[in-house]
Amino acid sequence: MSAQDINCLQNSFQKAINMSGSPGIVSTSPTQSFMNTLPRRLSTSKQSKALKPFSTGDIKILLLENVNTAAIQIFKEQGYQVDFYKSSLPEEDLIEKIKDVHAIGIRSKTKLTANVLQHARNLVVIGCFCIGTNQVDLDYAANMGVAVFNSPFSNSRSVAELVIAEIISLARQLGDRSIELHTGTWNKVSARCWEIRGKTLGIIGYGHIGSQLSVLAEAMGMHVIYYDIVTIMALGTAKQVSTLDELLNKSDFVSLHVPETSETKNMLSFPQFAAMKDGAYVINASRGTVVDIPALVQAMQAGKIAGAALDVYPNEPGKNGANTYNDDLNSWTSQLVSLPNVILTPHIGGSTEEAQSAIGIEVAHSLSKYINEGNSVGSVNFPEVSLRSLDFDQENTVRVLYIHRNVPGVLKTVNNILSSHNIEKQFSDSNGDIAYLIADISQVNQSDIKNIYDELNQTSAKISIRLLY
Ligand SMILES: NC(=O)c1ccc[n+]([C@@H]2O[C@H](COP(=O)([O-])OP(=O)(O)OC[C@H]3O[C@@H](n4cnc5c(N)ncnc54)[C@H](O)[C@@H]3O)[C@@H](O)[C@H]2O)c1
Known about the structure:
InterPro entries: ACT-like_dom_sf, ACT_dom, D-2-hydroxyacid_DH, D-isomer_2_OHA_DH_cat_dom, D-isomer_DH_CS, D-isomer_DH_CS1, D-isomer_DH_NAD-bd, NAD(P)-bd_dom_sf. The protein has helices at about 5-15, 30-35, 70-80, 90-100, 115, 140-145, 155-170, 175-180, 210-220, 245-250, 270-275, 295-300, 335, 355-375, 410-420, 445-455, and strands spanning about 60-65, 80-85, 105, 125-130, 145-150, 200-205, 225, 240, 255, 280-285, 305-310, 340-345, 400-405, 420-430, 435-440, 460-469. It is an alpha/beta fold. The protein folds into two domains: about 5-150 and about 355-469, Rossmann fold, CATH 3.40.50; about 155-345, Rossmann fold. The two termini are about 25 Å apart.
């Protein structure tokens, strides 16, 4: 028998029970599940034990909006039932579909409002196969005991590569030369066109994207300096500077990679453009509110700034189409588009096939780990809790996943219930009103499992319970 066959057998023999007790959620009958799913284990040397909530074949996942095929593959390998749709669903269809599924994967178009979520009877987890999570009522989901995951950093490399392209394009006025030829004008010039080798790139925000950009820029012979509110170890020979002004004074190219916060609103405005070198360039692929665009327009009209590349805007059209990017959207649009050496892109920094695939893989893994092991690390609405895996040879061990209201005395009550067993390890954390405990308890007889469930189910702070073994 091959190692793969053994793994398949192990997986198919290991089952656990879902005893989700959220209000309005139909629970699997503990006794019935328990009787149907007696785990039989193959004993082998040191191996992590795969914990599976009920038979994996019973797990139903609804995937909408053409979620990347890499994710479908991962879910199918887990044995889950995948219901896949290329588009989003009208609300009434979504309500019908969400009633029975344990997980749902969406992108930005599907709105998981309280009105939709209240119909979900078995839902355990939501995957946003994108960056943002505004489309989900996160608090409502957390109060139902439903964790939400996304993939905030899978497209960092794509953004960094776009910025490199823009640095060269601005330095060589590529946008203008291309538009001229498209309209029949031959304009072979070298004045004010530069190599980027030896020039200084100032990166504002040295996080996932800023640091990737730093490495790529140095590889092309640029000097890199960066400003960040946090002290961050430099990559390569980049240097952190202590003030934004210092960065602005020294940089030939300034690229912004900060989040949208009250501190970063209009981070580059009149005083900051005045502090920059004459003929410097500005690149913003972070958030639209970070650059004061009327101030940028004036700085460019005055010849202070030699070029700009913008990928993000304070207001962006809700959908693709002609005549959507105009003065009705942002009052300064016509002024901006009339300037030379301005590259405008429709928020495509992270939009590559590779990023979509990386998002698919990351979110699918997060969902599988949460379903199979209770690991909530990376969740956006939930306490982040994980426990190391159980060893495969740990017999009679049960993992308790207990989501509850964050009120005094809960852990004492729960530990009293678990006290007749050996608590091998446990971890608990809270996030606002919601708290989450994972505990591995050993020396649990099959007949104890229903009692543990029943007692936990009667605790007043309980939101939902799952027992994995
Ligand atoms: N254009 C796109 O398609 C696209 C794609 C992905 C991300 N983004 C955006 O890019 C930005 C950066 O993303 P990331 O993944 O690198 O984020 P990140 O969280 O990894 O890094 C942000 C960095 O900015 C720093 N920072 C925060 N406030 C600051 C301030 N006031 N001054 C200086 N530094 C500050 C943080 O300390 C952190 O190091 C975000 O706004 C994100 O939304 C855009």
